[in-house]
Amino acid sequence: MGKGAGVKLPGVSQVGRFAPILLSLLNEAREKLDDIIDIIHKTLGKPGKRPRTYRQVARRDYLYIVKNKKPGKKAIRKAVGKQLRYVRRNLGAVDRLLAMAGDGHGLARSIWKRYKPYVHSMNSSSICIPTALTR
Questions:
Q1: If you count Cβ atoms within 10 Å of the first and of the last residue's Cβ in the chain, which end, N or C, has fewer?
Q2: Residues in the chain with pLDDT < 50?
Q3: Torsion of CA 99, 32, 88, 11, to 10 degrees
Q4: What superkingdom heads the lineage (predicted)?
Q5: pLDDT score for 4
Q6: CA distance 91 to 128
């Protein structure tokens, strides 16, 4: 085997192509979670402050990568990680608000039906990307 000859794993070279798509899906899920937080907080009669969601910061981080003509792999990977952390924070906030609200959460049945499987996923160490929310 020569110096440049290596084993090519199937699909590894294409991972970089799908990172921007994942980034946009995570951004959309984060925005929908922000809306859900607002709905539940409003339904509860606004008890105290609304949970921190860092909307402006998360949006700025997302737009920084999207508007960049040729973002590097490292920058894309870093942006995906940031969006994942924003989504995890919002999922935790929704979980706490739903614990306070009980059954009177104020979410429409269609929204609640799509969101319910992801409410208790925060107990595991890995984060679940809510694909149902991104549709």
A1: N
A2: 1, 6-9, 11-13, 15, 121-126, 130-135
A3: 140
A4: Bacteria
A5: 52
A6: 10
Query: And the tokens for 15?
Result: 């991972």
Angle between helices 15-43 and 73-101 (to 10 degrees): 20
pTM above 0.85, yes or no: no
State the pLDDT at residue 123: 44
Helix or strand holding residue 96 (H, E): helix 73-101
Tokens 């990568």 map to which residue?
A: 65
- Reported residue count of the chain is 135
In three state form, how does the secondary structure of 39-74 look? HHHHHCCCCCCCCCCCHHHHHHHHHHHHCCCCCCHH
How far apart, in whole angstroms, are the C-alpha atoms of residue 31 and residue 71?
Answer: 23
Angle (deg, nearest 10), helices 73-101 and 109-119: 110
Helix (H) / strand (E) containing 134: none
Task: Name the helix (H) or strand (E) containing 127.
Answer: none
Residue type at 127 in one-letter notation: I
